[in-house]
Prior knowledge:
Chain A is mainly alpha-helical. Chain A contains 15 helices and 4 strands. Chain A has helices spanning about 1-10, 10-20, 20-50, 65-75, 75-110, 120-125, 135-145, 150-155, 175-185, 190-200, 205-210, 215-245, 250-255, 265-275, 285-319, and strands at about 50-55, 60, 275-280, 280. In chain B, strands 1, 2, 3, 4, 5, 6, 7, 8, 9 and 10 form a 10-stranded mixed beta sheet that branches. Chain B is globular and about 65 Å long. Chain A: InterPro entries: ABC_transporter_permease, MetI-like, MetI-like_sf.
Amino acid sequence: MTTSLESTFPLEVATARSRFPIHVAVFLTPALLIYSVFSIYPLVDTIRLSLYASDQTGAQHFVGLVNFQTLLTDPAWSVHFWNALRNNLIFFAIHMVVQNGIGLGLAMLLSLPRLTGGNIYRTLIFLPTMLSVVIIGFVWQLILNPLWGIAPNLLKAVGLGSLFGPWLGQESTALITISLISVWQFVGIPMMLIYAALINIPDDLLDAATVDGAGPFSIFWFVRLPLILPTLGVVSILTFVANFNAFDLIYAVKGALAGPNFSTDILGTFFYRTFFGYQLQVGSPTMGATVATAMLIIILMGVLIYLFGVQRRLQRQMF
Amino acid sequence: MILLETKTILRRTRFLLAAASVAASTLAFASAVSAQTLTIESWRNDDADVWNNQIIPAFNKKYPNIKVQFKADPPTEYNAALNARLAGGTAGDLITCRPFDASLDLFKKGQLIAVNDVKGIENFSDVAKSAWSTDDGKTTFCMPMASVIHGFIYNKAIFDELKLVPPKTVAEFHAVLDKIKADGKYTPIAMGTADQWEAATMGFQNIGVNYWKGEEGRKALIEGKQKFTDPAYVQTFAELASWAPYMGDGFKSQKYPDTQNLFTLGRAAIYPAGSWDIPIFRKQADFEFDAFAPPVSDASGKCYISDHTDIALGINAKSKNVEAAKTFLSWIASSEFADIYANALPGFFPLTKEKVTVKDPVAAKFVGWRGTCESSIRNSYQILSRGTPNLENELWNVSAQVLNGTMKPEEAAKKAEDGLAGWYEPHKK
Lengths: 319, 429
C-alpha cells in the first residue's frame, strides 16, 4: 500500500517528509529549555566572566585572557593552581585504584552463585553513598580523633597503638586519608554498576568456557573482564568527573583553606576560596570564573580523551 | 550519587539564590505590613538568643514603633552569603560589619552608607573607628560594637593542685608548662593546628604583640619600616614553636571544638584564649577558671595586648528604612546597649568611651588589661591582607606549620614577608 502510494504521488510524500516534525520539538523543548537556563547559560556566562576583571567599585571590564595568564604564570596564583591540580590527580588516582578496584572485587563476590545474604551486603555497602558528606566527614573525624576517637583505642586494643597518628592533620597523610574516606563513601557506585554488568553476562558463555577447560581465573580474565570493559570505562569517566568537581568532603573536614599547608587543596576548594573569598581574602567572581573555566577545560580534555581514545576502541572490541 | 557530588558547587549557588529569594519575599512582605521593620544580617548565630531576648526588647522599650529582626548565617558562610544578597538587592537593612577590608570593600561598592552624621558616633575613639573607616580616616561606615581580647585562660583547680602561680614572664610561663608536663596528668596547653586559625590567632597574634610592641610594630609593618624577617617576628614564631611539646596527643588533627572540650573537661591546664570563649566556658566548665595576660619577656617593661576590633553595624545603602536604621545605630552607640552587650556576652567588650561595668570576673580581668597594658589590633587586618597572597591566610598556614614542625621560625617569617613583598609596595624594597 505504502509503496504504491509513494510511487503514485512522490511529490506529496516528499513535502510530508520535509515538513517539520512538530512532535520532536514538543518533546525536546522542555528539556532543552531547562538545560539551557540552568546548565548551558551559566556555563557560557562563566566563560564570559572569566574574560573580565573588576575594579574597586565592582564595575567589570573586558581584559581578554589576562586572568588565565595570571592563573598560570603569576606565582601567587600558579603555585596554588598546580598544587591543587596535582592533589586532584592524586585524589583521582586513589579513587581509580582503590575505589574501583574494591568495587570490582565486591561485585565479583556479590555475583557468586551460592552467596547467601547478598542483598544485605549490597545494601550495607551502598548505604554510605546515600549519606550526606557532612555526616560522613563528621563521623570519620570522630573515629580518627586522636583525643576521643575510637581508632586509637581500637589499634591499642590489638597492640598496634604505636601505628596511630593524627592522619587528618599531617601533611604527608591528610590527602590520602581524605581520599580513602571518600572511597569508603562511594565504593557502592562502581560495585553496583559492575555488578549489574556481571549478572548480565549469559551463563552459556561461562558454561562454555568451563567446558572448554577454563579455570576461574581464566574465566574472569578472558570472558568476564572483556565483557564488562565498557562498564569499567563508564565507571572511570564518572569517577574522573566526580573527582575533579569534588569539594564538599574536603570543605567539611578541612575547611576552605584545605590544610595543613594546602596539602588537601583540590580544584574545588581552590575555586571556592577564589570565588567566594575566605576570612580576610575578598572573593573575586572574575578570577573565580577563570578557575572554574580552567576546571571545565581539564574535565573536557579528560572526557574527550576517554570518548575518542578509549570508548571507540572498546566498542570495536565488542563487535 | 556521583552526580550529586558533581553538582555541589552549583547546588550551593542555587541554595544561596533560593535563600536570597526567600529573604526577598519576606522583606517585601514585611515592608508591606510596616515600613519600620529592620532586619539585621549577622554571622553571630551563637548570639541569636541574646539579641532576641535582651537587646531587641530593650531597644523596643524606647522605640516601640521600630520592629527589629535578627538573622544570622554561620560565620564561615556569612561573607559569601551576604555578598550574594547585597548583589541581588535582598540583604537586610542593617549589616554586621567584619573589620577592615571586607567592609571597606562593601563601602567602596556603594553597598554601605557613611555613618559620620549618625548621633552617637562621637562616643568612639579613632582607634575604635579605624577598623571601619576609609584609609584617610575621614569617613566611617559602620558603628563600632565590640572588640575581643586575647590572653590565656587557666584551670584554677589544676593550678591549685600542682601549686602553680599564674606566670607573668615568658620564663615563668615555660616553668609552669614544664611542671604540668612533668606531673603528666594534664595536657599543659590546649590548642590544635587542624583549623589553622587557632595557631595564628590564639598563638601568633596573642603573644606577638609583646614582641613587636603593639601598635608601634603594627604601624611600622604597614609603613614598610619593619619586615616579618625582623627579630621580633622570628622570635614570636620561635616562641610559638616551643609550645608544640606541651600540646595534646595528635594536636595536628585537633580542631577548635576539640580544644574547647579538652579544656572544659578539665583535661588541659592552660588555654590560649580569645575572650569570646568566656561565655562558652561559663556554660560548660564545672571548675573555676581564671586568666593571665600574654607573658612578657621582662616583667618591668611595658605589656601589650591584642584588643581586636571585631564587630560593628552598618546600614545597607539599599535599605528602605534608613532613618529607622540610623535610630537603631545611635542606640547601639549608647551606654545602655554597651551595658547589655558586655554582660549578656562577656568576652565581647564595647568600644565606647563611656564607662561600662563588666560583671563576669574573668571577662572583667580581660578588659582590665586595657588599663595596665597597651592595646593593639591584629597586624594582618589593616591594609596588609588586600593582595594576593592574602597575608592573613599565609599567617594561618605558617603558624600551623611552625607548630607542626614542618617549618622553621625563620622560614615562616620569610614566607610571610615574601608573600607581602610580592604585591605591597612599601615591602618591595
